[in-house]
Amino acid sequence: MTRRIVLFLTILLTALVTGVFWGTWFTLTRSLESFTPAEFLHIGKTIIANVAVPMRVLMPSALLLMVAAAWLHPVKRSASFMLLAASLALMLVTLLITLVVEVPIDNEIRRWTVATLPGDFEAKRLTWKSFHALRTLTSVASLGAFLASALFPFGPLPESSQP
User: Which of 22, 35, 53, 143 has the fewest Cβ atoms nearer than 10 Å?
Assistant: First the structure.
């Protein structure tokens, strides 16, 4: 029963994290160049303010629950466990992209005004856009791998696949 609760909560939180990234990419990021700098700053600052605190809770919680799911997994040498491990690795990549690339740019955007946009504004916006797309991809892949791990009963790996 504990494992099922952990799986459920992990799926829920991972879906919420992925949904934030997917929703932003699908509705906004693909069109960034069409916004004036003033529109970009207004929308960007609003989104940053809305997601900063909740994502500080959701993402680490999802990662901790993934670790708990791995710990509770009944067959460590199984395709199911390998998918779970891949899911965890992909979500860690998602976190690294967030912390190393996206958050520093977000922190700069918070200080910008239309009058103080840096000369490399368009390059920074493109960097943010590119890494946001990558982060979205890694989070969707992580969710998919975790769902496959949780939903499909894979038995042990064949002997030839074991080290």
Answer: 53
Reduce the secondary structure of 108-131 to three states and give it as a string. HHHHCCCCCCCCCHHHHHHHHHHH
Containing structural domain, residue 138:
2-152
- Both tokens of 49, joined, read 């303010």
Rg, the chain, Cα only:
19
Residue labelled with tokens 């809305």: 50
Q: Is residue 160 part of a domain?
A: no
- For residues 87 and 149, the answer to whether their CB atoms sit within 8 Å is yes
Those residues whose C-beta lies under 8 Å from the C-beta of residue 61, and which sit 6 or more positions away, are 13
> What confidence tens digit (pLDDT) does each residue in 28-63 have?
888 988 999 999 999 999 999 999 999 999 999 999
Do the domain assignments include residue 7? yes
pLDDT digits (tens, 9 = 90+) for 100-123: 999 999 999 999 999 999 999 999
Q: Identify whether 162 is part of a domain.
A: no
Hey, which bits of 2-78 come out as E strands?
A: none
pLDDT in tens, 118-160: 999 999 999 999 999 999 999 999 999 999 999 887 666 666 5
The structure's pTM equals 0.89
Residue 32 identity (one-letter amino acid): L
User: Is residue 131 a part of any domain in this protein?
Assistant: yes
